């Protein structure tokens, strides 16, 4: 059985990178710089179902991605969460937040209409994230 993203994640995101444990994708909503990490494990729905070493690896990946996204966006606050109420496949959201953004200070879910990235802005952001991830995970 091969690893595939949930169709909703596949539809709403753009691929960014493959980390040791997770696939990193970018939510296509320019209002909120928002990365999602999805462990490469078929059928996984809960973080507590991971072995301890993989929980630590997922935590390392999420915190590294958070630091990178905050650095690149100069975000005021970083939100990290794994909810899974709509998409049960285990995935961890890493969202850059700004005072006065479209949802501030509330959660981003269900707020207004998403605003897709312009092609050049999307390409630049992904390129910058990939460069930072390469530095972080190849070091």
CATH topology: HIT family, subunit A
The CA-CA distance between the termini, in Å, is 32 Å
- Main sheet: which strands, in order across? 1-2-3-5-4
Helix content: 25-40%
β-sheet strand percentage = 15-25%
Order of SSEs: HEEEHEEH
Keywords:
5 strands; 3 helices; 21% strand; globular; HIT family, subunit A
How would you characterize the overall build of this protein?
This protein is an alpha+beta fold. 35% of the residues lie in helices and 21% in strands. It has helices spanning 7-12, 52-73, 119-138; strands at residues 13-18, 22-27, 34-39, 77-81, 92-97. Helix 2 crosses helix 3. The longest helix has 22 residues, at 52-73. The protein starts with 6 loop residues before the first helix and ends with a helix. The mean pLDDT is 95.
How would you summarize what this structure contains?
The protein has a single domain, classed as HIT family, subunit A (2-Layer Sandwich), CATH 3.30.428. The chain is 35% helix and 21% strand. The chain is built from three helices and five strands.
């Amino acid at each position: 059985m091969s690893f595939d993203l949930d169709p909703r994640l596949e539809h709403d995101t753009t691929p960014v990178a493959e980390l040791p444990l997770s696939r990193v994708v970018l939510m296509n909503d320019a209002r909120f710089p928002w990365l999602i990490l999805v462990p490469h494990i078929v059928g996984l729905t809960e973080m507590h179902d991971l072995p301890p070493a993989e929980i630590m690896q997922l935590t390392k990946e999420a915190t590294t991605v958070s630091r990178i996204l905050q650095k690149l966006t100069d975000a005021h606050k970083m939100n990290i969460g794994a909810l899974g109420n709509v998409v049960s496949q285990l995935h961890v959201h890493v969202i850059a937040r700004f005072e006065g953004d479209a949802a501030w200070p509330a959660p981003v879910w269900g707020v207004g209409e998403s605003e897709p990235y312009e092609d050049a802005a999307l390409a630049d952001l992904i390129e910058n994230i990939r460069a930072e991830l390469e530095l972080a995970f190849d070091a």
